[in-house]
Amino acid sequence: MLNRLQSLLNIPKECFLNRKLFKKHFYDNYQFTSSDKKLFKLDIKKITWLYSLKPENTNIPEFVDNETEFSEIAYIMVEVGNTDKISRIVEIIHRSIPYGTILFLTDLEKIVISTSLKRFNKLSRESIIVDEIISIKPLLFDESTSLINTLGYDLRNDTNLKEYYMSFVRELLAHITMSKIGCVAKRDISPKEHKIMLDQIDEYEKAINSLKKNILLETQISKKVDMNVEIKNIETLMFELKKQVS
After folding, report:
1. Local structure of 21: helix, strand or coil
2. d(CA 51, CA 73)
3. What is the pTM of this model?
4. Which domain holds residue 78?
């Protein structure tokens, strides 16, 4: 899988690290609960820092402002026991690394690709706030190759490392949008706004499904009618939101 992933990403060999990351690195950089440590210990088999993209090995300039710093982008592979139980692992790793991070999590059959939107805490530049985590649902590796092809090094915006990273984020969001609503995502929406809208569509879908289940259990006709009206109202809101995204 690693060789195929390298071929699809087509990142310059100068950026290749293939360095093992020990779990202690994360224990030292994150406030672990006992359940977090158990999760890391039992569910993670191996963490490998695959690539490090910097100005000196890519000729892509860094980007630094009051909110963000992109002087390096890390590509990290995490081998796990089961890709269906990784949301907490994804969150911990993103919160443990202070710069742009692209994660590939795999059980050697399925793969999850994840990025995040980070910024400095206004009270301390040493503290990072993760605003959004953007992850695709697990895909069989053979099914993921067309997506990974669109994430290749040569297709990224190389104005600076921030634009490189954000072009990767936008490609993931475009994939999620197509999978979720079957439409091509607008490219002029900010990644943060885009993720918030996709999350809201998820919430609308959950609310509709819950109401449909309640209708089946309800015996009073008037309450069934009220719930059907509520479903129609939510569907209208969801339709309008989908138009904004696509």
Report:
1. coil
2. 8
3. 0.90
4. 2-185
